[in-house]
Write a structure and sequence with these properties.
Blueprint: H1 2-22, E1 27-31, H2 34-44, E2 48-52, H3 67-72, E3 78-81, H4 90-96, E4 102-105, H5 130-148, H6 153-178, E5 185-188, H7 194-200, E6 203-207, H8 218-231, E7 235-238, H9 247-254, E8 257-260, H10 272-288
Parallel strand pairs: 1-2, 1-3, 3-4, 5-6, 5-7, 7-8
Helix pairs in contact: 2-5, 2-6, 5-6, 6-10
């Protein structure tokens, strides 16, 4: 009788454990930008919903959150932001959220480049270097998710190792793809591409806007033209959601190819980061050949 009761108790506890796991509240995590949302989706798999706050085509440097973004955070328990001044608007959302949200700032976990002499602070565009993402951002996200839900930590770690391996393979493909244009120079509408250029041997001859949204002074423009001629820059890279009055006439005057390349991305999250960087690499190769 005692053995029968012990067996019944063990079966009951096992069923209760499985029922409890099945009835866990669904995990909802949010990210300010497409790239970290793509990493998060890979890390959580089917165990959580991932929300992207920045709408497609919006510029994170100038974005002002709307009621739609507040509603997107209604169920979220974690918000991942880039930091370093890029997505400070996210703080407004957490202040008006219906419940407390843990904020995880990736810039605090990634070694960032300093900005140039025109700006103070650090360059936030680290996601354009997949090795920085592999070595710093992914482990930080795994730690954040594991703190949020320790019962799922093993799955987060396993998918984190898989993602890191995929990023290693992505970097190898990009190295091979960009090898023919290594050492060639470009001009950016603003300095979003320095991590990408450093990783793949490109040269940034300068930027049109010393600070995002501010047109260059006459003195800055003269210095930029001199740098274009000195480096033999071949292309001027603009972004699809920013406008510069100076970019088109400068490209015409200096015979630069005017090309549009998106550093932020949008679309399906699974595999989205890989597609973004591969598309960027192809665009640079075409522009600089």
């Amino acid at each position: 009788m005692e053995r029968m009761f012990s067996a019944f108790l063990a079966t009951f506890l096992l069923l209760a454990t499985h029922t409890s796991a099945a009835n866990r509240d669904p995990l909802v995590v949010a990210a300010t930008l497409f790239a970290p949302a793509s990493w998060l989706q890979t890390l959580v798999g089917t165990e959580a919903q991932v929300v992207v706050l920045l709408p497609p085509g919006a510029n994170p440097h100038t974005f002002e959150p709307l009621p739609a973004q507040v509603r997107s955070l209604r169920e979220a328990t974690l918000l991942v932001q880039i930091g370093a001044g890029l997505d400070e608007w996210a703080a407004k959302l957490t202040r008006v959220a219906e419940r407390p949200i843990r904020v995880w700032t990736l810039a605090e976990h990634v070694p960032l480049l300093p900005l140039d002499e025109h700006e103070h602070g650090r360059d936030p565009h680290f996601w354009l270097d997949p090795i920085l993402v592999r070595d710093h951002a992914v482990p930080a996200l795994v730690a954040a998710l594991s703190e949020l839900d320790p019962t799922r930590a093993e799955g987060f770690r396993a998918r984190g190792e898989q993602l890191r391996a995929e990023l290693t393979q992505l970097d190898a493909r990009l190295q091979h793809l960009l090898a023919p244009v290594r050492g060639r120079a470009y001009v950016a509408v603003h300095s979003a591409w320095r991590y990408f250029a450093r990783r793949y041997g490109l040269v940034e001859a300068g930027s049109v806007e010393p600070i995002p949204g501010r047109e260059p002074s006459a003195k800055e423009l003269i210095r930029l033209v001199e740098s274009i001629r000195r480096t033999g820059a071949r292309a001027l890279v603009v972004e699809p959601y920013s406008f510069s009055r100076t970019a088109e006439p400068l490209a015409a005057e200096t015979q630069l190819r005017l090309v549009t390349i998106d550093p932020f991305g949008s679309g399906a999250l699974i595999g989205g980061y890989t597609r973004l960087l591969e598309a960027n690499a192809h665009a640079f190769v075409e522009a600089l050949q």
